[in-house]
Specification:
The chain is mostly beta strands. It contains no helices and 13 strands. It has one domain.
């Protein structure tokens, strides 16, 4: 089974009330809040990845999210991803392992904050056990 990839590389974000919104099929799928002066970008998804690792099982890729930073710079982020069906968990890919993000559900979106976004990891949504 192929894993769906929602926000494709090069999809431009739309600034809206302090957030950057990424849309697919005319519907906002991802909202990102970054530190002032930063602009998130959608990059290519990795060609290989684990379907699961640790307690996370991937349902679909959401975005490969890059926030450029200088060496040693801290880059906090707030990430909001629209859920589908029984999706309960957000994670990002690091060294071929899924790192689960602490998140809360608000309406149709899972919301997670991370104190220092690690460059340009792929973000997935799925389930945890």
């Amino acid at each position: 089974m192929a894993i769906a990839k929602i926000i494709q590389s090069g999809t431009p974000p739309t600034p809206n009330a302090g957030l950057f919104e990424f849309s697919a099929a005319n519907r906002v799928e991802v909202r990102v809040k970054v530190k002032a002066g930063k602009t998130p970008r959608a990059k290519d998804f990795p060609p290989t990845y684990p379907a699961s690792s640790g307690k996370f099982t991937l349902s679909r890729f959401v975005i490969n999210l890059e926030v450029q930073k200088k060496p040693g710079e801290i880059s906090p982020i707030e990430l909001r991803v629209r859920i589908q069906d029984n999706e309960t968990t957000l994670a990002y890919l690091s060294n071929n392992q899924w790192v689960i993000l602490d998140s809360t559900l608000q309406g149709d979106f899972l919301i997670a904050s991370h104190p220092d976004w690690p460059g340009d990891p792929a973000v997935g949504i799925g389930q945890s056990s």
